[in-house]
TrEMBL record:
This is D-malate degradation protein R. Belongs to the LysR transcriptional regulatory family. The keyword Cell membrane does not apply. It comes from the Bacteria. GO terms for molecular function: DNA-binding transcription factor activity; sequence-specific DNA binding. GO terms for biological process: DNA-templated transcription. Residues 8-65 form the HTH lysR-type domain. SUPFAM superfamilies: Periplasmic binding protein-like II, Winged helix' DNA-binding domain. Keywords: DNA-binding, Transcription, Transcription regulation. InterPro entries: LysR-type_TF_proteobact-type, LysR_HTH_N, LysR_subst-bd, WH-like_DNA-bd_sf, WH_DNA-bd_sf.
């Protein structure tokens, strides 16, 4: 007769999730309101329950093992589900009100956020939402925003940062541009084409150089620090631009260049202050954004 496997203790799963997301036992203990020895015992208990090692210590840091990485996505989904159940049980979703400020890049704010904002409005109709569409890093520590969507992980210990997605980007150009200039054969050949500047030419050149794309100022003849404007310049046939496929797929007249090459993968971090644990409106918005972004991998 077969027997069902023993179900892991939720407290042990929660300890693992906090440790994986914060990157240290001490930070995870602070987040959960536990002592570090208690949290360490809970993580060890989960490893024993599952029969696998989830972390390995490298120097003074903790790194997820292969099994730990596989576990992380599943436990994040469990954590989101538990939070949503708590909200429903307490009848909070319809009672949440006040203003919340979300900061993200102008392209993300214009093309992707509206989809999840519809769900937010339905879940919390009394909530006021202000979108801070900027390409620089807003300072959550000074409360310039409540939640940030970033492509770099912040270092401040008072911030909660969760890696929620790693979307793919490719190079795109309009059919009209390619009819005039031809198609690039490989990454190196892209150096012979015009690119749209998204503001910082030097940063773009430095980012693309490791891919074998050696660009100079001559490659950037037109552009804008406003991402929406820069992307529209690509759509109108002024040159090549890199863009998330979730955005570019909306434009049937654009051509994905070198589709067989490895995509550009950029991490997406969801960041907020530790007030997340005491503010109902921040908790709801954070969790719904996390679910939405996870679907956009």
């Amino acid at each position: 007769m077969s027997t069902s496997p023993k179900q892991p203790d939720w407290n042990h799963i929660r300890a693992f999730l906090a440790t994986a997301e914060t990157g240290s036992l001490s930070a995870a203990a602070r987040e959960l309101g536990l002592t570090q020895p208690t949290l360490s015992r809970q993580v060890a208990a989960l490893e024993e329950e599952l029969g696998v090692m989830l972390f390995e210590r490298i120097g003074r840091t903790l790194e997820l093992t292969t099994a730990g990485v596989e576990m992380l996505e599943h436990t994040q989904n469990m954590g989101l589900a538990a939070d949503r159940i708590s909200l429903v049980a307490q009848g909070q979703s319809q009672a949440i009100e006040g203003e919340i400020r979300i900061t993200a890049s102008d392209v993300f704010s214009g093309y992707l956020l509206p989809e999840v904002l519809k769900d937010l409005r339905a879940a919390a109709p009394d909530l006021s939402i202000d979108i801070v569409a900027v390409n620089d890093v807003q300072d959550i520590m000074r409360r310039e925003a409540d939640i940030a969507i970033r492509h770099v992980r912040p270092e401040q210990p008072d911030l909660i940062a969760r890696l929620v997605a790693e979307p793919k980007a490719y190079f795109y150009a309009s059919k009209s541009y390619l009819q005039k200039h031809g198609h690039p054969k490989d990454f190196a050949d892209l150096s012979n084409f015009e690119f749209i500047s998204f503001g910082d030419k030097e940063a773009m050149k430095g980012f693309l150089q490791p891919l074998g794309i050696d660009l100079t100022d001559h490659n950037f003849r037109i552009g804008s620090a406003n991402g929406l404007v820069a992307w529209q310049l690509c759509v109108e046939g002024f040159g090549i631009a890199a863009m998330s496929e979730h955005v570019a797929d909306r434009y049937p007249d654009l051509v994905k260049l070198l589709p067989e090459a490895d995509p550009i993968v950029f991490p997406t971090w969801l960041v907020t202050h530790r007030e997340l644990h005491t503010s109902r409106r921040i908790r709801l918005v954070y969790d719904m954004l996390a679910e939405f972004l996870a679907r956009k991998k």
